[in-house]
Hints:
By secondary structure, this protein is mainly α. It contains 2 helices and no strands.
Amino acid sequence: MQRFARLAALGAWAVVAALVAAFGAYVVALTWPNGEGMDRTEAWIAWISGGCVALALVAVHIVYARHLSSMASGQKYSIENSWRVGVDV
């Protein structure tokens, strides 16, 4: 079970990296100021709306990755204490 938890944690971290890369590509590709398409207001709206979704997905995957990593190492982990650094439950 610990081996599968470690693989799942690595997968969750990979999803975090992919989401950050995809949002970066989204911002660059769709809102690049080339004279056509979006104006600055629409670009800001696109950045904010896409960024909120990407940020929420990244936050959830980080919590899952931390939970699975601690499960793989045999430590107890609780979601309530997930944001405290150095606190053992």
